């Protein structure tokens, strides 16, 4: 009897905790309402199964408890019941998995007019690259990777000269424009995750993975690494700032280009001044 009561209390407590929990989803800041819908569908189905199974066990514990003079009778399975269970389980699993597959397929199929930026994960920081005025990112090769050139942009590719390399842990993007995010890693598995966008993807050394989203409200959203990537994992935080087009353009213009960065590196101690001059001549 105590066990049955405990099971019922667990069911009631769990439901109450979820309904009145302060830890619900952060408010959505992108087009991916479909992510939330798929999540809620899964949560709804698993909640229903959780409640039904626990209440059934509690019922069975009470109904078939020991009573003096009553003997248990053996039953050797029921084909009909088993087919029902197989059928219901199959439908439940299909309903949980199918929306996720559908949303994932959409997540990795960026619209043709999406702008792009690239993120490089490194123990334990982020690097960002955007295409320059030509709208194209230069070719890369891991053999070119260095502290000044975290993406390994090829110095010989003219498309790469005006690539924008963001020095800080913060990237800006314009509001309401679809953006495709290209993801790479220099060392181990990282995962670029912004909860409010409902987007995340592993960053795998030797691969370029990608997803896209459209930011739907302005704000400063925290980036977290969602793969335990070593001792400094918890420090691997950054920000995505979503802002109006004009503010974004002003921010973009102030970022150094790959060519300016390389000249600054070559100039050594006078690097900062050269970079400033280089950025000026690029803009002209
Ligand atoms: Cu990481």
From TrEMBL:
Catalysed reaction, written as an equation: 4 Fe(II)-[cytochrome c] + O2 + 8 H(+)(in) = 4 Fe(III)-[cytochrome c] + 2 H2O + 4 H(+)(out)
GO MF assignments: copper ion binding; cytochrome-c oxidase activity
Biological process (GO), any one: ATP synthesis coupled electron transport
EC number of this enzyme: 7.1.1.9
Domain of life: Bacteria
Mode of membrane association: Multi-pass membrane protein
Alphabetized PROSITE patterns for the sequence: COX2, COX2_CUA
TM helices/strands, residue ranges: 40-62, 83-101
GO cellular component, one term: membrane
Statement: the UniProt record of this protein carries the keyword Electron transport: yes
Location(s), subcellular: Membrane; Periplasm
Keyword list, A-Z: Copper, Electron transport, Membrane, Metal-binding, Translocase, Transmembrane, Transmembrane helix, Transport
Domain Cytochrome oxidase subunit II copper A binding span(s) in chain numbering: 112-254
Keyword Transmembrane annotated: yes
Homology family: Belongs to the cytochrome c oxidase subunit 2 family.
Protein name: cytochrome-c oxidase
Protein species of origin: Pseudoduganella aquatica
């Amino acid at each position: 009897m105590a066990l049955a009561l405990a099971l019922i209390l667990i069911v009631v407590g769990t439901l109450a905790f979820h309904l009145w929990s302060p830890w619900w989803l952060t408010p959505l800041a992108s087009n991916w309402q479909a992510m939330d819908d798929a999540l809620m569908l899964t949560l709804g189905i698993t909640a229903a199964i959780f409640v039904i199974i626990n209440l059934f066990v509690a019922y069975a514990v009470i109904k078939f408890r020991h009573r003096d003079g009553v003997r248990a009778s053996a039953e050797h399975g029921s084909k009909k019941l088993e087919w029902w269970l197989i059928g219901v389980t199959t439908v439940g699993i299909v309903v949980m998995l199918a929306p996720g597959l559908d949303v994932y397929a959409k997540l990795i199929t960026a619209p043709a007019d999406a702008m792009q930026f690239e993120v490089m994960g490194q123990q334990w920081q982020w690097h960002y690259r955007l295409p320059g005025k030509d709208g194209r990112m230069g070719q890369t090769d891991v053999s070119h990777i260095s502290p000044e050139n975290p993406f390994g942009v090829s110095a010989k590719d003219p498309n790469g000269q005006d690539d924008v390399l963001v020095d800080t842990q913060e990237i800006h993007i314009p509001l309401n424009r679809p953006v495709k995010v290209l993801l790479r890693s220099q060392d181990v598995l990282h995962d670029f995750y912004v909860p409010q966008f409902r987007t995340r993807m592993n960053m795998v050394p030797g691969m370029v993975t990608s997803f896209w989203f459209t930011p739907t409200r302005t704000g400063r959203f925290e980036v977290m690494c969602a793969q335990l990537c070593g001792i400094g994992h918890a420090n691997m935080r950054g920000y995505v700032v979503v802002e109006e087009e004009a503010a974004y353009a002003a921010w973009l213009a102030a970022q150094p280009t790959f060519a300016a960065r390389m000249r600054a590196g070559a100039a050594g101690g006078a690097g900062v001044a050269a970079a400033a001059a280089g950025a000026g001549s690029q803009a002209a």
